[in-house]
Specification:
With 508 residues, the chain is α+β, with helices and mostly antiparallel strands. It has helices spanning 2-31, 41-50, 61-69, 80-92, 95-109, 233-254, 325-341, 358-393, 414-425, 430-436, 441-447, 453-478, 484-507, and strands at 72-76, 111-120, 126-134, 139-143, 151-160, 163-169, 173-179, 191-193, 205-207, 215-219, 258-262, 313-318, 402-405. It is flat and about 120 Å long. The model has no long low-confidence stretch (mean pLDDT 84). It holds the Pfam family SPP1_portal. Residues 263-301 are annotated as: Disordered.
């Protein structure tokens, strides 16, 4: 087993090494720490030496926008006992804080891992389950090449002081590996068994009967995810360069660069000369004695009513500073490009601008809402597996877990509610209309658990209309326009249809 395990270990280390640059790049863009790309190497070194930056980070918006819409409404089991146990697991592990962070990391890196490990007492009984996030920079699931849905094994590698540590998770056991002191662990010979119990050399391999691995992979794609903001890298590079260059021109807006043209064969330009020395050339003011030469003051005074007489100059002027729109317009173009590429509504990048409302915002948000729905499906399936695994470790056989999400979008404007009202008036059951408006089924069921005043009024209106129709049909029969048999048939059919509709609405 050692040779196979060692081969898996080195394969896992190689996979982690190959994937690490992509994850580091995703983190750098999310944190807004990407340096400006300069053609001039000297300028790049100068800014780096002085740590000058003008961060304008739009790249994190596609990640945060999705994360903000991913809110778990609740997790339930097959019965009240299972649901109560899930609630205890949730509270013990502070998952109301852990899960939003995990969703954000999954969007930032494209991958995130949830470790689910049982904790045993001295008798070997599982007393609780620990659930916590692990970074894809240190953990990676290796999938079976023949069946990409099956986990072959999982590797977790980290540095601990002067040692490199690693664990391999299999369906039936866990292996612990370590290097010697100060070893980089790049060669197979660098790795040795790492017993969990120093007195038991065989405890480096811990067997179990779980028949699955305690690592659950949240991802934006399969087999491995792509960062939500991957498409923002290029636009963000352009924005960073435009912003830094723009900031370089700001000083010239307040203090434009000036010039003076001298007369031919004229050398007397003393009016513009403040003295013999530049400020930096003056001797330091030691012992309060002052500089040895303070220079001569310029004869030109700035102020209202002052008049400047310039000897030896035929013209003066100033260079116009760069137009800010030369930079701001391309920045906004790249923001729009970023929104399009990352399927993120433009109004989320600029909440202070003109905000779409009603049907307009729903139309613009439709692709983004669909993306959020896909994430709910993917993350929900993985979370369901993780919670079911935790329940099995606590002794629950064949657990059934359901993850309930808050809607990615709900109707909360007048125009939207007018549409809902029109649907109900046209005969769409109220339950269906409210679910289509983005409300959860259990929420709607609670609202419609009884016959409310609005429904009673609607039924009264239907009966009033039916009575009015019957009266008019009776008048038509009296005039001979229609027979009594036809009136009876029409009224019978209408009443039957109304009863069927009412029953359907009650059942829905």
């Amino acid at each position: 087993m050692d040779d196979e395990s060692l081969a898996d270990l080195m394969l896992g280390i190689e996979e982690l090494k190959d994937s690490r640059p992509g994850y580091d790049q995703a983190q750098t863009y999310y944190d807004g720490k990407v340096p400006e790309v300069f053609v001039n190497a000297r300028l790049r070194r100068a800014l780096a030496a002085h740590r000058i930056d003008f961060d304008l980070n739009f790249a994190k918006t596609p990640v945060d926008a999705v994360t903000d819409r991913l809110e778990i409404a609740g997790i339930t089991g097959a019965d009240d006992e299972q649901t109560a146990l899930i609630s205890k697991i949730w509270q013990d592990n502070q998952l109301d804080l852990e899960m939003p962070d995990l969703f954000r990391r999954a969007g930032e890196y494209g991958d995130a891992y949830l470790m689910v490990l049982p904790v045993e007492d001295d008798q070997g009984n599982v007393v609780r389950v620990e659930m916590y996030y692990n970074s894809p920079q240190t953990v990676r699931v290796i999938y079976d090449e023949e069946n990409p849905r099956r986990k072959a094994f999982t590797i977790k590698k980290w540095a601990e002081g002067k040692y490199q540590r690693a664990e391999l998770y299999y369906d039936d056991h866990t292996e612990r590996w370590t290097t010697s002191e100060n070893s980089r662990g790049e060669q197979a010979g660098d790795w040795h068994h790492w017993p969990a119990d120093a007195e038991d050399p065989e405890s480096w391999s811990i067997e179990h009967d779980w028949n699955e691995q305690p690592v659950f992979h949240f991802r934006t794609d399969r087999p491995y995810g792509t960062p939500e903001h991957y498409g923002a890298y290029g636009p963000q590079n352009a924005i960073t360069k435009l912003q830094a260059t723009h900031m370089g021109t700001v000083d010239y807006q307040g203090a434009p660069q000036r010039y003076a043209l001298t007369e031919t064969s004229t050398t007397d330009t003393s009016d513009l000369e403040p003295g013999d020395w530049d400020d930096g050339d003056w001797p330091t003011n030691e012992r309060g004695l002052g500089p040895s030469d303070s220079g001569e003051e310029s004869s030109l005074k700035a102020g209202p009513g002052e008049m400047w007489l310039l000897r030896g100059y035929k013209a003066v002027g100033q260079f116009d500073a760069a137009n800010p729109q030369v930079f701001l317009d391309p920045i906004m173009f790249n923001v729009r490009a970023m929104a399009q590429i990352c399927t993120t509504p433009l109004h989320l990048f600029d909440p202070s601008g003109d905000q779409p409302t009603g049907q307009s915002v729903r139309a613009q948000d439709a692709p983004f809402t669909k993306k959020v729905g896909n994430r709910q499906l993917s993350y929900g399936a993985t979370l369901r597996e993780a919670v079911a695994f935790a329940l099995r470790r606590l002794g629950v056989e064949d657990p059934v877990v359901t993850v309930h999400w808050r809607p990615a979008e709900t109707v909360d404007d007048a125009e939207g509610w007018q549409t809902v009202q029109a649907k109900i008036a046209a005969g769409v059951p109220r339950r269906q209309a409210l679910i289509e408006a983005g409300y959860r089924a259990e929420q709607v069921d609670a609202w419609l658990s009884g016959t409310d005043d609005a429904e009673l009024q609607r039924r009264v209106d239907v009966l009033a209309s039916l009575a009015d129709s019957a009266q008019k049909l009776g008048a038509a029969a009296a005039l001979g326009v229609i027979t009594n048999e036809q009136v009876t048939a029409l009224m019978t059919d209408a009443i039957s249809d109304l009863e069927a509709l009412a029953q359907a609405q009650e059942e829905s």
